[in-house]
Amino acid sequence: MKTALTSRVRTAGVLTALFLAAGPAAVGSAPTPVPARSTSAWLPYWGSDAAYADALQHASQLHTVSPFWYEATSASTVNGYPGAGDRRMVDGLHAKGIKVVPTVIETLDAKAMAELLGDPARRTAHTDALVDIAESSTYDGLDLDYERMAETDDEQLRERVRVGYNALTAELCTRLHARNRQCVVTVMPHTLLDGHAYDYAQLGKVTDRLRIMGYNLHNALGKPGPLSSVAWYEEFLGYATGVVPREKLEVALPAYGWDWTVGSTGRAKHVTSREAEALRQDRKADYLFDTASGTPHFSYTDGGKRHEVWYQDANGTAAHLAVMKKYGVRNSGLWALGFENPGVWDVLAAQ
Q1: Do 83 and 48 contact (CB within 8 A), yes or no?
Q2: Angle between helices 48-57 and 87-95 (to 10 degrees)
Q3: Does a cis peptide bond (omega within 30 degrees of 0) precede residue 336?
Q4: Residue pLDDT, tens place only, 123-163
């Protein structure tokens, strides 16, 4: 964050010097161009009012909001979560110049999805159901966030999912584009060990935006550690920028964390970045920053048990945006509205 702020101060100084040098003639010249909006964010259906207010507050930085509203449960069934299609929100976001591209997730596992995607008739029925959702309101497109289908160690099954998903997205994107709507696909990071159910190169050809989830390096069921790291960003961005045009790539940044009970085999507790910082202050825990990963963390004791909390804030976001800049990826996303440390918006504005 310090580096980002220093850059902004230097830039301000240069602009001031240029203005003074130009003298009175500069007055009345062409206005300074408004920076292009470069951030998208998800709007969770739980806590949606707070998330919606957050979107309106930072509308000048947001080009797209993806309400987390829909769930595919079969080839022909896509159900809405509570509040899905809220016209007040859709219209309110549009009034601020923000595109509304709702997210659809899937509940089917790898085997079920491989069978669905491998059957042309069922795949088309699924595409029909998705197009119906896109046309059910004044939406600007759809975001497919199909993750469960990727959770398999069976290489043959994973390849069937990969090939079938290529066919689905090609068909869906063609039909959405014919309706002047965007086609967005969200994927897991592609590394040596993960993300191989997604064909980045093919998805990069047919989609308008390929969103990479830059989080959950350490998850709720694993050992304590950072949600993301500089080295991890280096790995997946190195791959992604080699096969997908940079202008189509977007990296979604975390605005949450996990609270692990050390030594427990149970699931870690989810905390938003705001909740994590409030907890740290309440427990009077030292703020620690892991420079290797670019992630804040702290520990505390409750009921005789030690807890470790790793989360993300403005300092860590700045560290990861620096890696994105290195690879020429300017588009960022945020999971999720209402979760974030407020200072994150200043860092995003300076990217």
Answers
A1: yes
A2: 10
A3: yes
A4: 999 999 999 999 999 999 999 999 999 999 999 999 999 99
For residue 24 the two structure tokens come to 């009175």
Amino acid present at 168: L
Distances from the Cα of 73 to the Cα of 51, 57, 126, 183, 309, angstroms: 26, 34, 10, 20, 34
Radius of gyration of the chain (CA): 21
CB burial readout 7-42, b (16+ within 10 A) else e:
eeeeeeeeeeeeeeeeeeeeeeeeeeeeeebbbbbb
Q: What CATH class does 36-254+313-349 carry?
A: alpha beta
- What residues are paired with 197 via a beta bridge? none
Distances (CA, A) of 223 to 5, 139, 271: 34, 40, 16
Do 137 and 90 contact (CB within 8 A), yes or no? Answer: yes
Q: How far apart are CA 316 and CA 215, in angstroms?
A: 12
- The two tokens of residue 201 are 């190169």
Number of helices (H), then strands (E), belonging to the chain: the values are: 11, 15
Q: Tell me the pTM.
A: 0.90
Write b or e for each residue in 179-199: b if 16 or more Cβ atoms lie within 10 A of its Cβ, otherwise e: eebbbbbbbbbbeeeebbbbb
CB-count burial class (<10 Å; 0-12, 13-18, 19+) for 317 = buried
Between the alpha carbon of residue 339 and those of residues 80, 169, 220, 335, the distances in Å are 22, 30, 17, 8
Here the tokens at position 125 are: 């029925």
